[in-house]
Amino acid sequence: MQAIVLAAGHGTRLWPLSEARPKVMMPIGNKPILEHIINSLVANGITDIAIVVGYRRGLIQAHFGDGSDFGASITYIEQMRLLGTAHAVTMAKDFPAGDFILLPGDNVISPQVLSDLIAGGPPNTALLTRSMTPSKYGVVELDDGMVENITEKPNVAETCLISTGIFLFDKGVMQLLEKAVAEGNMGLSEALQPFLNTIRLKGIITSGTWCDAIYPWDAIDMNSRFLTSSGQDIAGRIESGVLLKGPVSIGEGTRIRSGCHIEGPVIIGKGCDIGPNVTIFPVTSIGDNVTVSPFTFISGSLIMSGSSISSHCHVGRSLIDGNVRIGPNTCLSSSSCLGRARDELIALKDIGSVIGSNTVVGACVNIQPGTVVGNGCRINDGARLRENINDRSEVY
User: In this predicted model, what pLDDT tens digit does every residue of 13-41 receive, in sequence order?
Assistant: First the structure.
C-alpha cells in the first residue's frame, strides 16, 4: 500500500510559528510533526510515500531527502497554487498504483491510528475521532456505519464525531476528486460530499492518539500528549548533585550542571547548557543548543533550538520559538485565559504565552497568559505585555 501526505499549506492561524517553517515542520517532542507521521506509516509497513509540498517546500525536502534515513521511499509533488486540500490530492493523481492512504501532514498520530484504519476493512474508509471542539473540524454524521454527511466547520455541531482527514481510498476516487475540483470544490470535505453515496464511505473511530494544532497554543498541548517515553536516555554530561526523575532524554554534548532537578517526561536536545540549579518539570521539550541559566523554572513548555533563557525566569506552559533571547527575572506564567488568534477569541485552559522566533525579551518582563509575541520583536526591560504583539515590533 502507498500513502499520500498533504504538506503544502501555510497554517496562517498558527502565527507566529508558521512564518519560519511550514506547519508540518513544527517540532513536537524535538521532531517535526511530519516526521511523526512518516514514522507511523513505516511502523505499519507503508514505505512508498508521496508528499505534496508547497509553502517553504525546501525545508521539508532538506530534512527528509529521499526518505531512506527514515526507512521510506519519498516522492515530492509540488502544488504550485494552494487552492485547497482536494486540489492538492489531484496533484498526486498519477502516484498511486492502487489503494492508498491519504492523510494530512500537520496532525501528530500514533501508529495505532493507521493500524485502526488498515484493519477497518477495504476502501473506501474514513478515520474518525471524537472532539471536544468539533466545530473546528469536519463534523461527520454516520448512518449504520457509513458516512452520510460531512459538514466543514459548522457554527453549531450536531455531533462530536469529526473527520481526522485520514482516509483509505481506492484509486478510482482520484477521478471523482478531479471532477469536483473542476467544478470549483477545492476542499476535501466539500469535494467528497456529492459522492458519498457513490463511493459508500465507511466510517471507523480510531482508538489511537490523534491531535491537531490549529492555534499556536495547541502545540503546547500536542507536545504534552506525545512527550512520553520509558526509562532514561542520557548522552550528555551530568554533573554531581543533579536529580533526574522519570523518563528523561538528554542529547549528545549537553551539560546538566549541579543542583538541577529534572522530572520527566522531558526531552533535551544536543549541545545545550542547563543550570546550575535549574528546575524542569514534566512534559517539557528543549531543542538543540539551548542555554538555561541558574535558578530558572520551566514546566510543561516547548523551547525550540538556539534559544537562551537567563537566570531567575519562570516559564509555565509556554512556547518559545527558535533563537529567542529572554532576560533575567522574566515571567511567562500560565492560567485559564482568553487568547486571540487573528480575529478569533479562544478560551484557553492553563496556558502561558507564545514567543516568535528571533525575538529579544529584556529583564524583569511580565508576559500575561494567552499573549502571543510575534517574530523579530524587541521587548525592553520591565515591560508588561497583556495583548498580542505584531512581528518586528518594539515594546518599551
Answer: 899 998 889 999 999 999 999 999 999 99
Clarify whether residues 263 and 389 are in a common domain: yes
Domain that holds residue 391: 233-395
pLDDT digits (tens, 9 = 90+) for 166-182: 999 999 999 999 999 99
Indicate whether 221 belongs to any domain: no
What pLDDT score was predicted for residue 230? 65
pTM for the model stands at 0.92
Is the same domain home to 243 and 165?
A: no
- 3-class DSSP string for 13-77: HHCCCCCCCCHHHCEECCEEHHHHHHHHHHHCCCCEEEEEECCCHHHHHHHHCCCHHHCCEEEEE
CATH code for the domain in which residue 289 is found: 2.160.10.10
* Helix or strand run (H / E) with residue 316: strand 314-316
* Alpha helix ranges (H) inside 120-258: 173-182, 188-192, 196-199, 218-226
pLDDT exceeds cutoff 80 at 231: no
In whole angstroms, give the CA distance from residue 8 to residue 11: 9
Query: Helix (H, G, I), strand (E, B), or coil: what is residue 116?
Result: helix
Q: Are residues 118 and 173 in the same domain?
A: yes
